Amino acid sequence: MDPFLFERIDAYLLETMSPEERQRFEDEVRTQPELAEEVALQRKLIQGIETESVRRLLQELHTRQTAAPVMKASPARRTWLTLTAIAASVLLILIGRWAFVQYASPSSADLYAAYYSPAPGLPTTLGATDNPDFSEGMVAYKLGNYQEARQWWLPLTQQDAANDTLNFYLGVSYLATTQTDSALYYLRRVYDAPKTSYGSSARWYMALGYLQTSEPERARELLQNFREDDPRREEIVKLLNELPKSQ
């Protein structure tokens, strides 16, 4: 047989031809009976060689396995090995948990989710202004319609921009919709006011705002100056202990 033809048949049977070459070769096989016979014969030879090789390999493995000495562990040794494996597994689990507690700090987003809750709304009969629009906004706020609440409140800032109640609720309504820059703007106005009953609450929600923007150090700066009589004292201390340590 032509060596080149032999190589082509071999490449065809071993599937090393390109798709184009394979298509041309199959066209030749269909139109040339002698070539088809050669392909069939060579396929049988390859299959026979593979079968014999596998048989010999299995026989060799069987021979090696039966010749190798078998080490049988005593019942006591098997029990000891099992207990050792269990103890090692438990130790690894305990080490992993210890490392997690020691080194894994909750993220700012995790802390925000854990500590945030909307600021309670005011009774609508105790509005901070005599304008009924404030009460309408408070109704919307308490229903969770924060954008609608702001639509009532924002025009009021043109009349009374320094009103701490108005600024506080605008701030927390923006925080509730994760519009943090606007939230911090209004809460800062309350926090910096010389006399306000919302100072402590403004500081708390500003700190949460900094957690929302992944700035835990700024949250720490705010919270560490809390007063001992702060109504959120326990929450503040707990959050300070959980804030990620500065690098």
UniProtKB/TrEMBL annotation:
InterPro entries, per database record: TPR-like_helical_dom_sf, TPR_rpt
Superkingdom: Bacteria
Pfam families from the UniProt entry: TPR_6
Keyword annotations: Membrane, Transmembrane, Transmembrane helix
Gene3D superfamilies: Tetratricopeptide repeat domain (1.25.40.10)
Ranges annotated as spanning the membrane: 80-100
UniProt protein name: Tetratricopeptide repeat-containing protein
The organism's taxonomic lineage, starting at the top: Bacteria, Pseudomonadati, Bacteroidota, Cytophagia, Cytophagales
